[in-house]
Amino acid sequence: MGSSITPDIAGLRALSHPVRLRMLTILRGEGPATATSLAQRLGLNTGATSYHLRQLAQHGFIEEDAERGNARDRWWRAAHESTRTDFREEGIVDSDVEAYLTTVALMYADRMRAAVSEMSFLPEPWRKVGTLSDWELRVTPAQAEALVHRLAELIEEAPHSDAGDAAPFVVNLNAYPRPGQVWGEEDEAR
């Protein structure tokens, strides 16, 4: 599996659908699945699930797992470990970016709420390793870009473990200008 995909505008639109984003998350986190198993998991009918899977495949997010199943029972797997976004590409429309990011933010919030509600049930060593921390820095746009790039590199370089006590560990990188600021003309020119 390749490490990441940076979707074009059509891919962003495809991922803006919450069901598709949840499907991709399941396939990345839990491995290959059929339309039937995903439909049961997500409370959908198999026709709708198959449609969403085809949309994800069309944009390169997933692929058929030809080593599993048969002609009647198609298995799907994630084609990449992560999705990276680059909103500076030509043709990216603000409304498309906002729709995608809103879907991502809602999904992150749901997963974070679930993680917090399960914390007291975790094995003792896992209760101490997560964080819900935040920092607020004053930086230039170039410094912010460099920071995000360095953090992404660090996450991507983290080794995967096959040790007996290894478990899936979610890292969400959220970095953005503080909401609610009043921007002056000189800020917008930079």
UniProtKB/TrEMBL annotation:
Pfam families: HTH_20 (PF12840). Gene3D superfamilies: Winged helix-like DNA-binding domain superfamily/Winged helix DNA-binding domain. The keyword DNA-binding applies. GO terms for molecular function: DNA binding; DNA-binding transcription factor activity. It comes from the Bacteria. Residues 10-93 form the HTH arsR-type domain. CDD domains: HTH_ARSR. SUPFAM superfamilies: Winged helix' DNA-binding domain. Keywords: DNA-binding, Transcription, Transcription regulation. This is ArsR family transcriptional regulator. It comes from Nocardioides glacieisoli. The lineage of its organism: Bacteria, Bacillati, Actinomycetota, Actinomycetes, Propionibacteriales.
